[in-house]
Amino acid sequence: MKLNELQLSDVKQFLRVDYDEDDTLISSFMEVATSYIKNYTGLTIEKCNEIEEFSSVALMIISDLYENRKAVENTATSTSINKIYDSMLNLYCVNLL
């Protein structure tokens, strides 16, 4: 599945959410994940949509955001990143400094 093919229903299934109350929140996390991937790698959104692994990375990012949404409020200055999606994104990163 490509990044632009990821639907709310796919994400809810991944998160094991079977209610609609958090749809807006989950949708916003989907946008955040896509933006994060695009900005982290430096790739265009079109190029990001060609790389199928990015849908898995997006699901991991969304899951982290959703499952830790209360903790994020308390650690706004945290700079930690999940090492799994960090290494997956680094394979395609053009933002090399």
Gyration radius from CA atoms, angstroms: 13 Å
Class per helix and strand makeup:
mainly alpha
- Weakly predicted, low-confidence segments: none
Helix share, percent: 55-70%
DSSP strand (E) fraction? under 5%
Shape: globular
| Multimerization status | single chain
Instruction: Count the E strands.
Output: 0
User: What separation lies between the terminal Cα atoms?
Assistant: 30 Å
Order of helices and strands: HHHHHH
Sheet of most strands: none
The helix count comes to 6
Average pLDDT over all residues: 86
Please provide a written account of the structure.
This protein has 97 residues and is mainly alpha-helical. The protein is 62% helix and 0% strand. It has helices spanning 8-15, 23-41, 45-48, 53-67, 69-74, 83-90. The longest helix has 19 residues, at 23-41.
Task: Please give the structural blueprint.
Elements: H1 8-15, H2 23-41, H3 45-48, H4 53-67, H5 69-74, H6 83-90
Write a brief structural summary.
The protein is an all-alpha fold and 97 residues long. The protein is built from six helices and no strands.
Keywords, please?
single chain; 97 residues; mainly alpha; 6 helices
